[in-house]
Amino acid sequence: MNRFLISLFAVPSLLTLIQSCAVNSPSKDASTQAQQTHQMNHNSGDNLSAHHQSSTHSHSNHSSESASLTKAQLTKPSQIAVNQPQTFLIEIQDKTGKPITDFETFQEQLMHLIVVSEDLDVFEHLHPEYDGDGLFQVEITFPKPGSYTLVTDYKPSRMSEEITLLNAQVPGVQLTSSVKINENMSQILEDTQITLTSSQPVLQSGQEVTLKFNLKDAKTNQPINDLKPYLGEQGHLVIFKQSNPLTKADYIHAHALKNTPPDEVHFMTNFPKPGTYKVWGQFNRNGKIITSSFWVKVS
């Protein structure tokens, strides 16, 4: 898509990485990223890029802002509406503002976009389309008013994997209700029963842990045998720590371990701080993507 698409939006203004977005006129959120090692989890809210290494671990963050390589800008519609699909533009630039034009495919996509509401009730995993000249476009539908965090994950050619947090504010009346935390570790999603267990009886911050998802057929109560790869792996895991506002330090992304039973998907990760976290596990059962979610408490 040519750059004239941007003219469909009002003139955007740059915002910082984790600032709230204005809703009366379109704007751009600018964020810078620093290199980080791709091992356990995103532990620092200031560093914004990751080396892509083992598929058995989650992202980890160890470097400083001085190593920043790129920045991302979000262009939003002039008026964000609830329950209406709308197009958002994400432009990737180098430190000087020049568009980055070449990207590498990882996990079968050029960019992964995670959209979560501030209360962690809403979750979406999308894949923006690349239109060239550093510009991605994606259609997002927000189901309710409130503040949303957009996590972009991309890898410029011959560079480190980059993680960016952007924000979108959806106008409207927000219901004032406390977040309901369901501590049930088993749920049925249509024809699949998913149960979450861990390698530790009590989750401890700063300790490596394996999260285990067991999948059974809800009708027969038998282990499933039709689990297919999702984004090149047995499953996909995203974790956010309950926090207000959500920051880089609250985000964890893990990759599935290999050589597990056919009805189980395991992820190795590390919760950096005590608190309450929400875990989303995504799986491909015979071509249909299943997204499970669980709350866990970490001491």
From TrEMBL:
Signal peptide: 1-22
Bias kind Low complexity: ranges: 50-68
Keyword Signal tagged: yes
Domain of life assignment: Bacteria
Organism the protein comes from: Lyngbya aestuarii BL J
Annotated PROSITE patterns: PROKAR_LIPOPROTEIN
Protein name, UniProt field: YtkA-like family protein
Composition bias type Polar residues, residue spans: 28-47
Keyword Signal: yes
Keywords annotated in UniProt: Signal
Segments for region (Disordered): 28-76
